[in-house]
Every structure is written in C-alpha cells, then in structure tokens.
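>> received
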Amino acid sequence: MMNIALFGPPGAGKGTQSERIINKYKLFYISTGDILRKEIADESKLGLEAKNIIASGGLVSDEIIVQIIEKTIKENQESKGFLFDGFPRTYIQAYILEGLMIKLNTSLNCLISLEVEEEESVTRLLERGKTSGRSDDNEEVIRNRLKEYYDKTLPVLQFYKDRGIYQAINGSNSIAEVNSDISVILQEELNKSLLNFVMFGYPGSGRGSQGLALAKKYGLEYVATGKMLDEEIKNNTEIGMQIQELYNNGQLVPDEIVVRLIEQKLENSKGVKGFIFKGFPRTLVQSYILDGLLKKHGSSIAEIIEIEVPTLELIKRLDARSKTDRCMPYDNSTTKIVQRLHEHEIKTAPVIEKYNQLHGVKKIDGMGTFEEVFERLSNEVEIGFKKI
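>> returned
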C-alpha cells in the first residue's frame, strides 16, 4: 500500500496532479472537504454532527475529521493506497494522521510539496478568476489565503522533513513536467515496497516445501527459523548445541536465539522483493516482535496464509516422514508428534486469530498433490503482488 500527502499553496496545481496520480497508481483520493460533504449528504452520525457545527458557524473539529478519514480508509481497503489532499493542514493534524496510520498498521510513504513562488500563485489564481467565476479569486482574498497557508502549513512540512519523507518539486514547471517529477518519486517508493508473507500451518502441512518453492518462483527471501537453527547445529556452534538439547526434549527454541538470527537475515538480505516467513511467529509475543522488526526496516506484513490439513492426515504425514532422511527431531516418536501438534494448537492458534482480526488470514486447502496446493498458494501470492 502506498500512501501520499500532496501539498502546495493555492494555485500550485494539486487538483490537476491529484487526478493524474490516482488514475495512474489506483489510489483512493481523500480530500477532507469532499469526504465531509459526503458524510453530510449521507446523513451519517458523523455527518449530522458536522452539519450542526457548520450551521452554528463553527469549525468541524479534528476529532470528527479523523473519524471520517478512518471510516473512509476502512471502507476502501481494496485500494492500492491513499492520496491525501488538504490533510494534514496543521502540525497537530500531522501527529493525528501519524497515529491513525499506526492504528491501521500502515504509514505515510511520502509528502510531496509542489513549491511555487507567491507571485506565481497570485498570477495563476487571478488568471483562473477570469474564467472560473469564483468570487474568492481576487488579489486581496488570494494573498490572505496564501498567508494562511504559509503560517499554518510550513510547520507541517517541517514535521515531515524531520521524518525524512518530505519531497519538494518545482510546481512552476509545466503540468507534464511536474507529473513526470512526481512519477519518479512514486516509482522510487514502489521500489521500496516489500511483499512479506507469513505462512502458518501445523507441522506436516507442507508449509516448508511450499514456502521454499514460492520464494524461488517469485524471487522472495525464504526465512525459515528451522533451517537457520539447523545451520547452527550443523556448524556445532554454542547456540547450536543449546538448540539440539531443546529439540531432544521436544521444546521450542527461546525467542532470544530466534530473533537474533532473523534480524541478521533481514539486515543481510539486500535488494529482495520481500520475505516468506515460515516457523515464525509461533507465539503472540513473537508476532509483536516480527511487527517491530519489519517496522524497523520500513516494512510490514502484506499477507497471512494458513495451510489447512486435517489432524489425522498431519499425523500420517509426520509418521511417514520419520522413516525418511527428512526426519525432524520431533518426528521420531508418536508421542513427540502429538506433543508438537498440541503445542502448535495452544501457542500458535492465538497468533493466527490475532492476525485474522488485524489483516485477515487466507485459508488454503492443503490436501491434494504438491502441485495442486502450490497453485492455490501461487494465486494468493500473485494477488499480493497486484495489491502492492
């Protein structure tokens, strides 16, 4: 998802550029004036509150505005992102938008400022006034509007400069040149977007082999905690010996070890399209850790997938695997297999429920041939790429 705020003084051409941007990048346009008028027309609870305030000569509060913006975003989740025009207008609203983005598990990618000298803005608006019929397109009103813009909005620009997502464009250039400059910025933002999947499924569901195949097909980095832990065991490191003892007792490896290895993986994987996480997170605590790790790297989870396989089929698969060279430490007895499945149900099922409430979890039927299941999973990955 790509979220942009478009700024510029009156006459900078925000309306013209907004129309081009939303059509090209399939973004949903959020103008506080437009969505406020829609709520009033729909006679929603928020719309009626705003209508009463306006009728009494007051200004609609930030509290109402942010609720309307949140409602609009939630109702348009199918969009590839949002373009904010006219919000935030103040320093306080910048904090409000940042908090809202965090609540919705997203963020503002960049603020693009169309910079135009005051005299240029005045000239443009006076010219527009000759044909627009707008009574506010006279020099006195125009200069008052520009003064208000610079007094209230410049602190907002500083807010985003401090966060490193401010981008300035010469708005005095032609419409085509300005649009081209904006496109360069947005393409750079798209290139930063990572498509991160978390794959869930009970042991024996096939998430390991399927995850590895998906990563290879779509150029994603496969992050399997089991594989990383096995490498530590193979290299006979001190951590590896600890892991081996835990495996022998049918226990999970502590977060301190797993998180350290995952963070190294994220830091050392440059230029990838995204990650497929298998085997992490297994607990609610780990789910919060993963959210934090990805946020630290400017990313987030895009899709949650759970491969569903009946319990008896899982036991059958794991028992069969125990008789091959692919046997895992917890496969070598029926008691350990049942214990491992039980641990997943107790510790990991709540994680899946948490993600289902936040993002929605895609349930994939894990029965059938490898190719059949892989095709179902591939369809979900391709949907994810289309969204991003």
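>> The mean pLDDT is 88.
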